[in-house]
Design a protein that fits this description.
The chain is of the alpha+beta class and about 270 residues long. It has 2 domains: about 140 residues, PAS domain (Beta-Lactamase), CATH 3.30.450; about 110 residues, PAS domain (Beta-Lactamase, 2-Layer Sandwich). Helices cover about 35% and strands about 30% of the residues. Strands 2-1-5-4-3 form a 5-stranded antiparallel beta sheet. Strands 7-6-10-9-8 form a 5-stranded antiparallel beta sheet. It catalyses: ATP + protein L-histidine = ADP + protein N-phospho-L-histidine. GO terms for molecular function: protein histidine kinase activity. This is histidine kinase. Its EC number is 2.7.13.3. It comes from Marinomonas algarum.
């Protein structure tokens, strides 16, 4: 419903522009558009700016009197093809197109915008309506978060330790094992993940296997973390003394979904 009303409003404004051949918008429409938190720009058939609301003027650092600029001049050069492709698609299919694009603001850093464009036809002339939501802060936060995640992942993968997530069964069937598995016991992760011919449980010393099982089950029943000391066989057939710290992952009803933890060698 809101989208339909919004499209009708933009269509009406565009028709006024066509009739008047001027970037001026009647006061009632201008007041509505100037109160929006999103930028609104209307482009003519050559993709020049015919009208821009107050939010766009603040976002682009251009005055109200600035018009007849090609909208593409405000975009990062690497996004020009993306913009041109989106314009072609909305022209061919008559539907709105959404894309994430970078804006070049004079004297400022690059800003990211969630852009929605749609072609409107009136009086045998076509116009493009563009709405832009400033998502710069969100993108920056996502980039920082992704960078931290990559750094942490690289650090974890370089550690001579096994980070794991697996099922609570006697085979200790693994769903995830970190790359440190190869450094610690000589097996690549894919050799132990969901492999019936070789399970992680097969590598635990037979004398330790039942004690490990009982200690984990006791901890899971009491919803507490566990710490285990046992012998683990490497690919050469030698046993290493290891310590394992882990915990259960539970559903909202208390059902055990999986276990996860870390295994490192001890002296």
């Amino acid at each position: 419903m809101l989208t339909s009303l919004w499209n009708k409003l933009l269509r009406q404004i565009s028709k006024l522009l066509v009739v008047n051949q001027t970037p001026n918008v009647h006061a009632p429409y201008r007041q509505v558009l100037d109160q929006l938190s999103d930028a609104v720009v209307i482009l003519d058939h050559s993709l020049c700016v015919m009208y821009a609301n107050r939010r766009w003027q603040r976002l682009s650092s251009h005055s109200k009197n600035t018009s007849s600029d090609y909208f593409i001049h405000y975009l990062h050069p690497d996004d020009h093809q993306k913009w041109q492709r989106a314009v072609r698609l909305t022209h061919q299919h008559g539907e709105y197109i959404e894309l994430l694009i970078r804006l070049l603001i004079p004297g400022m850093d690059i800003k990211w915008g969630e852009v929605r464009i749609q072609e409107i036809h009136s009086h045998n002339t076509s116009f493009i309506t563009v709405t832009i939501r400033d998502v710069t802060q969100r993108i920056q936060e996502e980039n920082i978060s992704n960078a931290k995640h990559r750094n942490l992942t690289c650090l974890v993968e370089r550690m001579p330790a096994i980070l794991y997530r697996g099922r609570n069964n006697h085979s200790w069937s693994m769903e995830y094992i970190s790359e440190g598995c190869e450094d610690l016991i000589g097996y690549q992760p894919n050799q132990l993940i969901n492999q019936p011919q070789l399970s992680f449980g097969d590598l635990i010393h037979p004398e330790d296997a039942e004690i490990v099982w009982q200690n984990v089950q006791s901890s899971l029943r009491e919803y507490r973390r566990f710490e285990l000391h046992y012998r683990l066989k490497n690919r050469k057939g030698h046993y290493l003394n290891v310590i394992e710290k882990g915990q259960g992952i539970y559903s909202t009803t208390g059902e055990i979904l999986s276990i996860e933890g870390v295994i490192v060698q001890t002296l």
